[in-house]
Amino acid sequence: MRRHVLSPLLILLLSLWAGELASRAATADALTPSGSTQMPFTLVSGTFAVWSGGAFVFVQDRFSGAPLFRFFDQDGTEVAQFTFGIPGASRINIYDHSVALGLDGSLAIIGTVYPDDSTGGAFIAWVSPDRQEQTIMRVSPFFPQTVTVASDGTIWVAGYEPKQHHDYDYSRHLVRRYDKMGKLLGSFIPWSTLGTGPRPVPAVRSVLLPLKDSVGWYSSDSHTYIEFSLDGSVINRFKSAPHPEHDLTYVALCGDGSLFSSTRISDGQQQTGWGIFALDRQRGEWSFIPRHERWGMLFGCDGTRLASATDFQTISWLTVK
Is the dihedral of CA 155, 232, 192, 249 positive or negative? Predict the structure, then answer.
């Protein structure tokens, strides 16, 4: 896990935000504990978990020839398993923010694949709800970084293309939309419109999140959160939370549109705490909600309940008011 250090100025700002919470009762009370579940999986090297499409999706052996997907309900009961494979692949790499479960049970996966007899390439995969069918889309040189399944079943990815002739092509679009058969339905947001220049690459530390009739794209490095209609039109745009530069910890979007981003707090040597930023859509501003635990993370949002963890044994549910 990368270590992030908050500057003295940012620590001061976080303290000021925390002090303002007393006068912002709606924000201060935005998250209240509403139960806990014993963590049904073990987070170690080579694994990760996300709450997506109404279930915990836990991935084991994500840097292997046969990554294992396990699915758990909100009570921690395992409901299914699935071993993912690509014909001819000796190794499949699945990174963070690279798995999404659709409301219909379909599964979208992005990553890189390495056959025995050639160099690797990037792929997008769609797997049917019964896990009997799958479509593999080889998308190199496009390199997908994050994926989600929209409410209409389409697959959305954000990524970029490598440098050409010592530079990037800033006219290229960063977000793409596919159907389950691999047909490209559209691409959106040219890199040049974000004003980030060659560094950082906006799609690297980003996450796509589904809403009822739209899709959100949170890009930490471009300091931007954008919501698209299902045809790709931009319908909302906000600044991202003021977390440390180049940091993307965990982002969760709830069914009512509530958006949260967690952050780590460090004293320069080690992590000393964590907190959650909450977006006020009317003002377009973020409020900081400090948590009392030393460490924490978000898995996602189930309706209006955030799935979080502050240790490696318990899932803590936080209700969004």
Answer: negative
Question: Rounded to a whole number, what is the largest CA-CA distance in the chain?
Answer: 63
Decide: 101 and 59 in contact? Cβ < 8 Å: no
Distance CA 108, CA 157 (A): 10
Residues 260 and 248 sit within 8 Å (Cβ to Cβ): no
The alpha helices in the chain, defined as continuous H runs, are: 8-20, 25-28
Q: What is the pLDDT of residues 60-114, one digit of tens each?
A: 999 999 999 999 999 999 999 999 999 989 999 999 889 999 999 999 999 999 9
Give Rg (Cα) of the chain.
Answer: 19
**Beta strands 63-64 and 206-210, pairing class:** unpaired
Cα distance between residue 98 and residue 72, in whole Å: 18
* Cα–Cα distance, 300 to 306 (Å, whole number): 6
By DSSP bridging, strand 250-253 and strand 63-64 are unpaired
What's the pTM?
0.87
